Amino acid sequence: MNTNRAEFANCKTLKQKEEVEEIETKMEIEIRRGPWTVEEDMKLINYISLHGEGRWNSLSRSAGLNRTGKSCRLRWLNYLRPDIRRGDISLQEQVIILELHSRLGNRWSKIAQHLPGRTDNEIKNYWRTRVQKHAKLLKCDVNSKQFNDTIKHLWMPRLVERIVSTQNVEFTPNHYSPENSTVATAMSSTSSSESMGSSFYGGDQMEYGTLDHVANGGTCFNGGDALETLWSVDELNNWLLQ
DNA sequence: AACAGTCCCAACCGCGAATGA
DNA sequence: CTCATTCGCGGTTGGGACTGT
């Protein structure tokens, strides 16, 4: 025991000191879990504003937070970051989520990259609470071809129709179809932002505008109850039976 | 008003990948 | 190269808010 004490006292490297601190921390302080307090938030914000992100475990200790590095990282990325966008998922964002999910599956962080200010957690929650709810109502699996077709041929066109009409863009039925989509073009006609990359619809070789363009573009619509007001369950079921 | 059921979202957990010693 | 640590992702859960009876 005394030998260890002496070793601790003599340790010189940062790594050694961090290890000692960690041992002492584990012995003396209970790691906090659960909801964050305002005080904890402030500590994290202040520390990151001075020292930047990264090295979350040591950051947690240095900032005087009795939290795991993981917990700090999550709190920062999903809640405290200054560029976080709050509020309902807009209609444009819904279209992007549905489209990207059909291509990428449950790769939430990849999908989130196309939605500035939205976190993977938020998109994941949206999918689970809103989209899966509709699959449940229709009594089909969320990953089934049937449900994917519903999204592709009914849900997305309706969303796009609503976006276009809200933006007062001239709309014809040809503006959106899964096989021949000019949706992004129509939707981005009021947008001033620059195109940033990925093709919007129909696979890698097709060029119908860009998702990022849509995400960044124009007016932001409140889409909170959009799914529920686009159609009734009966209407969906009738469509499925066709 | 009280209770039960459902919804929603912040936070946690486990695992694999990346990085460093 | 190996092992330990850290990071990031996707799945899951707990509990407060909301809604219906």
Automatic annotation (TrEMBL):
<keyword id="KW-0238">DNA-binding</keyword>
<dbReference type="InterPro" id="IPR017930">
    <property type="entry name" value="Myb_dom"/>
</dbReference>
<dbReference type="InterPro" id="IPR009057">
    <property type="entry name" value="Homeodomain-like_sf"/>
</dbReference>
<feature type="domain" description="HTH myb-type">
    <location>
        <begin position="28"/>
        <end position="84"/>
    </location>
</feature>
<feature type="domain" description="Myb-like">
    <location>
        <begin position="28"/>
        <end position="80"/>
    </location>
</feature>
<dbReference type="GO" id="GO:0005634">
    <property type="term" value="C:nucleus"/>
</dbReference>
<keyword id="KW-0804">Transcription</keyword>
<keyword id="KW-0805">Transcription regulation</keyword>
<dbReference type="Pfam" id="PF00249">
    <property type="entry name" value="Myb_DNA-binding"/>
</dbReference>
<feature type="domain" description="Myb-like">
    <location>
        <begin position="81"/>
        <end position="131"/>
    </location>
</feature>
<keyword id="KW-0677">Repeat</keyword>
<protein>
    <submittedName>
        <fullName>Transcription factor MYB2</fullName>
    </submittedName>
</protein>
<dbReference type="InterPro" id="IPR044676">
    <property type="entry name" value="EOBI/EOBII-like_plant"/>
</dbReference>
<dbReference type="GO" id="GO:0003677">
    <property type="term" value="F:DNA binding"/>
</dbReference>
<feature type="domain" description="HTH myb-type">
    <location>
        <begin position="85"/>
        <end position="135"/>
    </location>
</feature>
<dbReference type="InterPro" id="IPR001005">
    <property type="entry name" value="SANT/Myb"/>
</dbReference>
<keyword id="KW-0539">Nucleus</keyword>
